[in-house]
C-alpha cells in the first residue's frame, strides 16, 4: 500500500509515524511538505518569540532525516498544487527547482494545516508586517523585537495567538496597542472570564481598542509607519514600528476541489477522519468535525487534536482499532499573571444552539485559605433538565487549568453537576481547600 501525506507538521507526521509503526515494510509513505521544517510544536511559537524558549530547534521534535531512518520519505519544499481524486493523482511543485512532479496514491492523508488570514489591508507583503504561523515567521519577528529602534507594536486580533503575542512583546519592554474588531477580547469565552483578562491587560498598561478595525496601512516605501483605524468616534491614525496580523486563520484547502468542505473551507471529516472522498482522510487545522457536546461541526485548530486525529488515521489504515476520541474543544491561555481555560460549550454557544442551560459562577481560593491568597473564578454551564455538565471556564492565579481539565473529564463522560460535586479529588493545602474550588462551583449550582 502506498500512502501519500500532504503536510508534515502535527497531523501529517503523527499519522505517518503511527502507520509506519503499525505496518512497517508493508506500507510506503511519502510526505510532501511545502515548508522547510517538519514535526515542530507550532503552539510553542509565541513562547519562542518571548524568549521563554531560547532556540527554535527546541520546537522541532524530529527532522526529515530522522523520519527517513524509520522508512518515511519526507520531501520538504514540495508543494501539492492539485489532487485528482478520480485518478488518485497529485501534482507537486519542487519549490527549490521549479520541477513539476506527478505522483499517485492508494490512500491519501491531508494535513495541510492553515494559514493566517490575509484580509485587506493585510493582503500585501511589507517589511515590518508580521504573522506568526511557523518557525520562520516567529524568528523574523523575534529579531525585530530585539531591535531598540522598534518601540511600538500594533497587534491586530485579540484571540489566543494575539494575546500571547502581546505578552511576548512586553518581555522586550515594548509599547503595545491591541486592536480587536469585536466588542471584547477573546470572545470565544464568556464575558465574566474575558472581563478579568481585560483588567489584566489594563494593569500591564496595554492599550486595548475593541469595536475597532484597521482600514489602511500607512506606508513609507515597503515599511508601515502607521495604521489607520475606524472606531465609533471616527478615523484615527496610530504610529507603528511593527504590526502583527493575528486576525485568525483559514484552512489550507484552496488547492482541493471535488471534496466536501465547511463554510470556512475546512475539510469535513467523521469520527474516523474520513472525508467525503473514498480513501482520503484529513486531520489537523485543515479539517473540521462534529463536537461531541453540541453535535454540530466545530473548528478546533489545536496541536492536541491534530496529533490525536493523526494517530486515529494511522491506526485505521494500519488495521488497528483506534482509540476513542471525542472533540470537546478544550483550550488554555497564560496572559501575564493570569491563567485562563475553557472546555465544552460556553454560555453564548449554548444559547446560540438553543440548548436549555443554566450557569453558576463562583470565585474561590486556589489553595487552602491559610496557605495562599491566589483566587480562581470558575463558571459552569450545565443542561437545565438533565443537569449534565456542558462546559466550564476558569480564570485566575494558582491552579487554574487543571481545574478546567477536571471539567473536561466531566463533559467527556457526561457527569451531572451533582456527580461532579462529590468527586474524590486529591487534597492537600498546597493544592486546594478541603472543598476544591471546582467542586464548589458544581455543588452551589441551583
User: How many β-strand stretches?
Assistant: 26
Task: Tell me, briefly, the overall form.
Answer: globular
Which structural class do the helices and strands define? Answer: alpha/beta
Low-confidence stretches: none
What is Rg? 23 Å
Lateral arrangement of strands in the main beta sheet: 3-2-1-7-19
Helix content: 10-25%
Biggest sheet descriptor: 5 strands, parallel
Average residue pLDDT: 97
The end-to-end distance, rounded to whole angstroms, is: 57 Å
What does this structure look like?
Helix 1 (10-23) packs parallel to helix 7. The chain has helices at residues 10-23, 45-49, 64-69, 135-146, 160-170, 191-203, 303-317, 347-353, 401-413, 417-421, 437-443; strands spanning 2-6, 28-33, 72-76, 78-84, 89-94, 100-104, 107-110, 114-116, 129-130, 152-156, 175-179, 207-209, 213-220, 223-231, 234-239, 242-245, 249-251, 267-268, 280-282, 287-290, 297-298, 331-335, 338-344, 357-365, 375-383, 389-396. A hairpin with a 2-residue loop joins strand 22 and strand 23. The strands form seven sheets. It has a five-stranded parallel sheet with strand order 3-2-1-7-19. Strands 9-16-10-11-12 form a five-stranded parallel sheet, covered by helices on one side. Strands 22-23-26-25-24 form a five-stranded antiparallel sheet, with helices on both faces. By secondary structure, the protein is α/β, with parallel strands linked by helices. Helices cover 24% and strands 30% of the residues.
